[in-house]
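Hi R.,

Here's the chain you asked about this morning:
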Amino acid sequence: MRKKGQSLGIRQAAALAVVAAIPCHVGADDQGPVRDRIGIDIHQLTDDARLDLIRDSGMGWVPDDVGDWTAAVTTVVTRYRDDIRYWGIWNEPNTTGFWTGTRQQFIDVIVKPAADAIHAADPDARVVGPELAHFVSSGRVFYEWLLDIFTQAGDRIDILSHHTYPRPLAADHTTITRQLDADTAFGDQPDLWGFLGVHPSLREVLEELGWSGGVWLTEFGWRTTDLSEQQIADNYTGLFNDWLTGDPDRNWIDKLLLYHAQTDEYGIFNPDGSPRAAYFAIYDFIDASDGIIEVPMKDVISMAFPTDQGAVYMLEYTEDVATDSWNSREWSILGNGLVMYAFDDTADSAGKYYRIRKVN
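And the predicted structure, written out as tokens:
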């Protein structure tokens, strides 16, 4: 189990999996600044009806032909290899809504063929998985799935990913931290995991596996149907304080990707697109930690961002974020609340990455 890890990101807009895109802007060699370790899931499915349509058409079913699955993965990775480096395989297979086969079928039919296809199509790609939900109920126990998957296919996975939400859903951030990092009564005794309802933390399972690769928390969050907007904002701040303030025993999770940049009950935006309190809490935490906000966005048409009163911001662009060489559009603004910027000519933004940088 690694306690001090190197950063696992790239200086480009990255996408994770086929179901979720995560913009990431991170350092290359060592654990970078806070802004490089926080991400947001941007799911392209905007309503339940569309998700139901996909599910009804076969999402979660075991492929009839492994060759078809492998060919599909190869086609997607080959097409996007210049833009996407990190590929997640599936989503929460230990839930019946996303996988109807057995655990062994998931390993043999999905993980192994997909991981091999990803690495073959792009040797520089990184496989992320298994995207398990932190469930401990019968048949869905996350650590049973994790042990089996990594015992049989761990050599094919580059970054271990995990999802965790508070249980109950209205619980605060300390519940998530305990799920991830608690010292439990039988943590070092796998044969007793689950005894008397005591389940190991994610860290204890990874220690049992001897996992030394990267770890990403690729989903966590709270719902406005369970908590007030301010309570949710406070929970994000609390969780970031738990994990991103320099505790040497808490740097084994390299990225925290909150769920998500949408307008539903989990979203950090209101239905009209305005930011909720959680958005500003995230912004303020990053700003207080790093003193700068950088969110590279490609092919943008318009941008909205909160600003501090009296601070100066610059609009900058680059065609290759890997170089970390940015050009100014000779545009600046004096901070005064939420600012909108729209490009007069979309050709100005085509093929370029833009960011808003706080100058002072």
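Helices lie at 48-56, 66-80, 103-121, 142-153, 173-181, 202-209, 229-243, 277-290.

Let me know if you need anything else.
M.
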